From TrEMBL:
Organism listed in the record: Niastella vici
Region forming the signal peptide: 1-25
UniProt cross-references to PROSITE patterns, sorted A to Z: TAT (PS51318)
InterPro entries: Gfo/Idh/MocA-like_OxRdtase_N, Gfo/Idh/MocA_domain, GFO_IDH_MocA-like_dom, Glc-Fru_OxRdtase_bac, NAD(P)-bd_dom_sf, TAT_signal
Any Pfam family the entry gives: GFO_IDH_MocA_C3
Protein's UniProt name: Glucose-fructose oxidoreductase
GFO/IDH/MocA-like oxidoreductase domain segment(s): 176-294
Family: Belongs to the Gfo/Idh/MocA family.
Record-annotated Gfo/Idh/MocA-like oxidoreductase N-terminal domain positions: 42-165
Any one GO MF annotation of this record: nucleotide binding
Length: 371
């Protein structure tokens, strides 16, 4: 029964062909009521049982249409612990050597890759080759070339590739996007994005370029890049950037500590952003238009997100981001639902191209044009 269901589900999923994203990715979706789902849940295996993987697993307890059914880990003790905590059968447990065998597992529809950044590329491609849909954490890859290879591999395998952009489902964020799209803020002129925190343990993988692919920009600065795009509603055409390093011992070559960067958009709007591993209290977005303004502060933490506009406080309720994200991603994978802001691999490659350009601008000291 399960395998028949799985077969039918895959048939439906592949019939709703790519691409998910409309030509103008920022036009408002038609407001369709999401009919109550009476089909099977999306059965997800988590790869990488670390701090964020644990957060996602806990949040999935409240999901209506996504369910944790498998794990992939290199640590047998963690597997045993997760098996008892989440009721996961031994047949759905894998390690990094044997997870290609997930191909033959009919109780798993998708794998959520939540490992260090530089591992995502190979792991996502292996999952795609095993015929399972993939959800991958941000940054999807460590550069645009690798990101594009992941997108191509998933297309070739006819599986969907989604990226853990949880803010794309956050109600206050979506309200500001609605206001901007409906003209309530007027012509947008400026966005400011501040993303940073003081990072601790100098031995962690986030400060090891071989595993992180970079520094603060890869980990936290990406929120300002992605935020600038969904708040302004355009794709940037140029980048300038400047780096400051106060602690070269902790932040080795290739691991950025603090980068200020500027983005220019086709309309003439500009963005000014800060990405850092050396300052706290930096999680703030500000959007300014001719008719109004909007602020989110905190803008991208786990919440509650707080926001206000020239019209007053935003009052949309807080919902656990990862619960909403996983239910929405189940709808995207199973029914081809279109999110207001894309969460697919192409969306991630757009961010990675900007990260590549920021690093180039830092290296050369020049303005970098984006194609
Ligand atoms: P973490 O260190 O807590 O967990 C990483 C996991 O990967 C660990 O279980 C570790 O054992 C495993 N792993 C597998 N191979 C490894 C290797 N070779 N070296 C080191 N660890 C290895 O990290 P995390 O905070 O859970 O971050 C994981 C991913 O999730 C990152 O890509 C990060 O950017 C992303 N993340 C996203 C959010 C978000 O809000 N969307 C928040 C935190 C982290």
């Amino acid at each position: 029964m399960n395998s028949r269901r799985n077969f039918l589900q895959k048939l439906v999923a592949s019939a709703i062909a790519f691409p998910l994203i409309p030509a103008d990715a920022y036009t408002l979706n038609e407001k369709k009521e999401d009919p109550a789902w009476d089909g099977p849940p999306l059965r997800v295996a988590i790869m990488g049982l670390g701090s964020y993987g644990t957060r996602v697993a806990e949040a999935m307890r409240d999901c209506k249409r996504a369910r944790l059914t498998g794990v992939i880990s290199g640590t047998p003790a963690k597997i045993t612990n997760w098996q008892s905590k989440y009721n996961i059968p031994a047949a759905n447990c894998y390690n990094y050597e044997n997870f290609d065998r997930i191909k033959d597992n009919h109780d798993i529809d998708a794998v959520y890759v939540i490992t260090p950044n530089a591992l995502h590329h190979d792991q996502v491609i292996r999952v795609a080759k095993a015929g399972k849909h993939v959800i991958c954490e941000k940054p999807m890859a460590v550069n645009a070339k690798e990101g594009q290879e992941m997108v191509d591999a998933c297309k070739k395998a006819n599986v969907k590739l989604l990226v853990g952009y949880r803010m794309h489902f956050e109600p206050k964020t979506l309200e500001i996007i609605r206001m901007r799209k409906e003209g309530e803020l007027g012509k947008i002129g400026f966005f400011q994005g501040l993303s940073g925190f003081t990072i601790g343990d100098p031995t962690q993988w986030r400060l090891n370029k071989a595993l992180s692919g970079g520094g603060a920009m890869m980990d936290i600065g990406i929120y300002s890049i992605n935020g600038a795009r969904y708040m302004v509603g355009e794709e940037p055409v140029w980048v300038t950037a400047q780096e400051t390093k106060t602690n070269p011992e902790k932040f080795k070559p290739g691991v950025d500590e603090t980068i200020q960067f500027q983005l220019g958009f086709p309309s003439g709007a500009v963005a000014s952003c800060l990405s850092t591993y050396s300052m706290n209290n930096l999680d703030r977005f500000f959007l300014d238009g001719e008719k109004g303004w909007a602020e989110l502060w905190p803008a991208t933490g786990y919440g509650p997100i707080k926001g206000r506009t020239n019209k007053g406080e935003l009052t949309q309720p807080h919902m656990t981001h990862q619960t909403v994200q996983m239910d929405e991603m189940a709808a995207i994978i199973q029914e081809g639902k279109q999110p207001v802001v894309p969460v697919d691999g192409d969306e991630a490659v757009r961010d990675l191209k900007i990260i590549d350009a920021i690093y180039e601008a830092v290296r050369t000291g020049k303005k970098v044009e984006l194609k």
